[in-house]
Structure formats: structure tokens, C-alpha cells
Write a structure and sequence with these properties.
This protein is an alpha+beta fold. The chain is built from 4 helices and 3 strands, in the order H-E-H-E-E-H-H. The mean pLDDT is 88. The structure holds zinc ion. The site of zinc ion has 8 residues, from loops.
Length: 79
């Protein structure tokens, strides 16, 4: 399962307590040449609560390197 889907399926909003999230991966673009060189290292995943819009940002480069990603996602959302 993709990181985005795992985050969306486990999401519990820390502000309003509801579940259901919109997850988007995006690149924080630099300018000029760094825009191309760093694109793999400037990716982030934004998880937005569908109820109140509260958004959390994660670094997928870190999360996708974890063997116990499921445990970490459970911990993030306090399950
Ligand atoms: Zn919320």
C-alpha cells in the first residue's frame, strides 16, 4: 500500500477527532537548477482532515525507509 493510502486510512484528526483525510504528495520547489537536483529530496506529504481542514505535513523520505511503518503510523495517530 502506498504511504499516502496508509496515512489516509489511519488518519484521526488531532483537532476535531474525525477520521477521513485527503492526502497529497507535493514537491517543495526551489528555484533554477536546484529545482531539478533536489526534487527527490524535497517531497512532502500533506494530510488534511476532511472535516476541519487541519493539515499535517510528513517527510515521505523518512517514513518510507522504515521497516515498521505500520507501527509508526499507529503511533502518529495515537492508536
Ligand atoms: Zn479535523
Amino acid at each position: 500500500m502506498r504511504l499516502e493510502d496508509r496515512l489516509a486510512s489511519k488518519f484521526v484528526c488531532t483537532k476535531c477527532g474525525s477520521t477521513g483525510a485527503e492526502v497529497r504528495r507535493f514537491a517543495a520547489t526551489g528555484t533554477g537548477i536546484t529545482r531539478f537536483l533536489d526534487i527527490q529530496h524535497n517531497q512532502f506529504v500533506a494530510v488534511s482532515c476532511k472535516n476541519c481542514g487541519y493539515t499535517e505535513i510528513y517527510n515521505p523520505e523518512i517514513l518510507e525507509g522504515k521497516d515498521n511503518l505500520g507501527d509508526i503510523i499507529d503511533m502518529i495517530f495515537g492508536l
